[in-house]
Design goal:
- By secondary structure, the protein is of the alpha/beta class.
- It has helices at about 40-50, 70-75, 115-130, 150-155, 170-175, 190-200, 200-205, 210-220, 260-275, 280-295, 305; strands at about 5-10, 15-20, 35-40, 55-60, 80-85, 90-95, 100-105, 135, 160-165, 185, 225-230, 235-240, 245-250, 310-315.
- The chain has two domains: about 1-20 and about 30-135, 3-Layer(aba) Sandwich (UDP-N-acetylmuramoyl-L-alanine:D-glutamate ligase), CATH 3.40.1190.20; about 185-320, Ribokinase (UDP-N-acetylmuramoyl-L-alanine:D-glutamate ligase, 3-Layer(aba) Sandwich).
- It binds 1-O-phosphono-beta-D-fructofuranose.
- 1-O-phosphono-beta-D-fructofuranose (F1X) binds near residues 41, 45, 92, 104 and 261.
- Belongs to the carbohydrate kinase PfkB family.
- Pfam families: PfkB.
Length: about 350
């Protein structure tokens, strides 16, 4: 087995960041500073962060050879495997306000037909053979069956690679409903996604750690081995067979939270590739996420920018996972939620 990471971005994007001169005024006219465009989509961002740290990575995506995203990825020298499609890759917009508030406007994306989906599945199998990690990230494009991620998790098991998933809404619910044989080794929800999965309001999850951990335990009960719950300005939790750890992020000036969750996932994988235990994986995840949030647009941090940040990690518990019958009930909190969360 090599230390390779293979990412799939079924719905890639060109991320266009529009830097607003002040707070967004609905119905007004904003005079923008010059805008920037970067190749994006969650799996592409994970791959860019792994590559920036010198990791062995391949990113798999649907895009025509002359699509601007392919040209941009070539310029970055990012190893990639593309499946040609007729429709151009979507453009997603970020409205970036000077105080770091980001508003995302995501297009639906280029439809993926059965043939393209089949070709992506084959490409994933080819590259995942012998790899350490496979990452399935982001939304599914129009025309994709919602249970495709579940199918991929089941079939990619044969490659021997560990499987991480970061998605939201219907594809996330379909994955967790597909049964324990489709459960990934690592799931990276944020508080909004954990709320979608657990039915517990997001404000309760961010306000009370016991509530968040009870909701995380319901994911373990459905077969997910390790959960990296990112909570934006409130840090992150890592929960798995060895126990639960909580991290407090460093103080940073937030410039853009776009891609911070992807960089957190990359930080976890990089620490795992280096042989790090759970506390170190969480520390690296939070440092990568914070470093990314301190950069504009969906820029990924260098290892030096990450190393400059201090992250506190505390052990919450060291016993193993609860079984489906012993998962604790969700407890409700009336505490006011803490501000800040990571945005996709
Ligand atoms: O529409 P999706 O697939 O859910 O998310 C896509 C996206 O918002 O995610 C990345 C940030 O995490 C961006 O590069 C990209 O624009």
């Amino acid at each position: 087995m090599t230390a390779r990471v293979v990412t799939l971005t079924a719905n890639p994007s060109l991320d266009r960041t529009l830097a607003l001169p002040g707070p967004l005024v609905r119905g007004g006219v904003a005079r923008l500073a010059p805008s920037s465009t970067e190749p994006g989509g969650k799996g592409v961002n994970v791959a860019r962060a792994v590559a920036a740290a010198g990791g062995d990575v391949v990113t798999v995506l649907p895009a025509a050879d002359d699509d601007p995203i392919v040209r941009a990825l070539r310029e970055l020298d990012l190893p990639m495997a593309t499946v040609p499609i007729a429709t151009p890759v979507r453009t997603n917009y970020t409205l970036a306000e000077p105080d770091g508030t980001t508003t995302k406007l995501n297009e639906p994306g280029a439809p993926l037909d059965d043939e393209a989906r089949g070709a992506l599945t084959i490409a994933m199998h080819q590259h995942a053979e012998g790899a350490r990690w496979v990452v399935l990230s982001g939304s599914l494009p129009p025309g994709t069956p919602l249970d495709w991620y579940a199918d991929l998790v089941r079939s990619l098991r044969d490659t021997g690679a560990k499987i991480a998933v970061d998605t939201s809404e219907a594809p996330l619910l379909a994955l967790l409903d597909a049964g324990p044989d489709a459960a990934p080794d690592l799931l990276k929800p944020n508080s909004e996604e954990l709320a979608q999965l657990s039915g517990v309001p997001e404000a309760h999850l961010t306000a009370n750690r016991a509530t968040a951990l009870a909701a995380v335990d319901t994911l373990h009960a459905r077969g997910v081995a390790e959960v990296l719950l990112t909570l934006g300005a409130d840090g992150a939790l890592l929960s798995g067979a060895e126990g639960v750890w909580a991290a407090t992020p460093p103080r940073i000036a937030v410039r853009s939270t776009v891609g911070a969750g992807d960089c957190s996932l990359a930080g976890h994988l990089l620490a795992d590739l280096a042989g790090g235990g759970p506390a170190e994986r969480l520390r690296s995840a939070v440092a990568y996420g914070a470093a990314s949030a301190s950069l504009p647009g969906s820029a990924v941090p260098s290892p030096e920018q990450v190393a400059a940040l201090d992250v506190e990690v505390a052990t919450v518990r060291t016993e193993g996972l609860p079984s489906s019958t012993t998962a604790p009930p969700v407890t409700w909190s009336t505490t006011v939620p803490a501000a800040g969360r990571d945005v996709h």
